[in-house]
Description:
Shape: globular
Helix content: under 10%
Strand content: 35-45%
Low-confidence stretches: 1-18, 457-466
Structural class: mainly beta
Distance between the termini: 96 Å
Number of strands: 44
CATH class of the largest domain: Mainly Beta
Mean pLDDT: 83
Number of domains: 4
Number of helices: 4
CATH topology of the largest domain: Jelly Rolls
Oligomer: single chain
Amino acid sequence: MRRYHRHRPAxxxxxxxSTTGPMLGMLVxxxxxxxxxxxxxxTFGFGNTVQRVAANMQPEQNAVVQVSIGGGEWNRTxxxxxxxxxxxxxxxxxxxxxxxxxxxxxxxxxxxxxxxIVESNEGxxxxxxTIGLExxxxxxxxxxxxxxxxxxxxxxRTPLFHAELSGGTEALVTPRSVIVFRGEGIxxxxxxxxxxxxxxxxxxxxxxxxxxxxxxxxxRYRSTIDTQTADAPFVQASRTAVxxxxxxxxEATLQPSLLQDGEVLQVTEPKNNARVQGxxxxxxxxxxxxxxxxxxxxxxxxxxxxxxxVFSLELSLPIDNDITDISIDAMGTDxxxxxxxxxxxxxxxxxxxxPTFIRPAETGxxxxxxxTRIEIVGRAPxxxxxxxxxxxxLQFFEPGDATWTYLASTILENLVEGENVYEAVAVNEAxxxxxxxxxxxxxxxxxxxxxxxxxxETEEEEEEEEELQPAQLPQNDPLMPGSITVTAPTPGxxxxxxxxxxxxxxxxxxxxxxxxxVWVNGYRLRLYEPGKTYWNYIASTELxxxxxxxxxxxxxxxxAEGQILDTFxxxxxxxxxx
Length: 578
């Protein structure tokens, strides 16, 4: 090994030694050691055993949300997932989701909200839950101080401030506001950028920071909660949703143990070789608390009730596996395996068939128009529980509906000059998404109608065109007179359309349950299903089913034998001004 020596002179001068240098060096070394120790304790939890714990993410009512794992790209899902630090969650229009943390802190996201989990650390002495709110609104519920053992800091960070929430808090947080509906002690401490001292927002108070916030006197922005804010729909819905979620968690924990004499571990869910829908499964069971210290499910440690021994965990299944083995391990106080049960489950991951567009054009077509308001109509697959168009979940679509409608309008800003691409997907009960169906609408130009054809009509549709015409069907007096009604666009028998935006209207109504077919002006409604009590029909100038002036629509309901159950005439007077 080559060594490099410091060159010294051949002779040296004898000097008097000083103790200042060594003492200063020792002081520097001790200081560095203390700082390093503090950093290690803070970072790795030395002296305070810390584990990163997942938060349970639950989309509400099969909502489609977007998640980012570890700061990666965003992906859509409608399934429950386990999210950790650095994972992100975003909701779209008319979608909500909840994050349920290990300490029973619950965060509910409003529509068009984006958050990121900064910390979810459970420590032996100190714990932390931190959420980064990037955009939108969240409702935060924290449990009472007495409900959690040890010290915990719960924080919501925004680009403008970070708020430390006390126990027993119910608060609404936006990027510029903190509204505390309930809270213990002096309330929520809000630290605004460039200030050292926090401002405290107590129960019944709110803080709203303007864009030109003056940090030298933050209390000027604090006020009491007004009635409009207290009664806001999101506030009321969040209280109910969180209360339900916490009750479900409590019921799952308080289920009585079913252990038999001598049993150490029992698994009640799932059954072996069970077939489950989606990518999550609930694992539930109970242990003998005198013999078991911890329970691990596929390596994840889960808590059990100290009295009943009941445990429950929602486990995410591997995306690429159809068959998954679940290992439930009961561990003793010495960390050794006491008993193990393995359950095998099969994931049912078949997505639904894609929906189809039928009006104003078929799936895959390009349609050009000068109308600034267009009713898009499509057909839904049988197993669809939801339809999503361009990340917007249709509010009025219900499971079992054969058709769906979507309004494209320049006023709603989902129809603009030029090319507009509409992508529709179906969601099934398992939360799986179909392949997308697309329709392109070009707003502007001089052409009106289909410029690029879509998919061909199905054989079934072609056969329907050959069915009997109204003149060939019975012309009896109505068997159930008065049973047809029109509910929209105006309930009753008439509607006045005096704006250009009403050049396309959806006529909706009800028919008796004995109805087998519905006809409008001699045209059989192909999307109507026998036995349904509702129907709809598009009155549109571009489709040739409406024109200026008086338009009459004769609605006829017939039974399975073709007999007339009832007839009704609805009038639309289309007189656009200007």
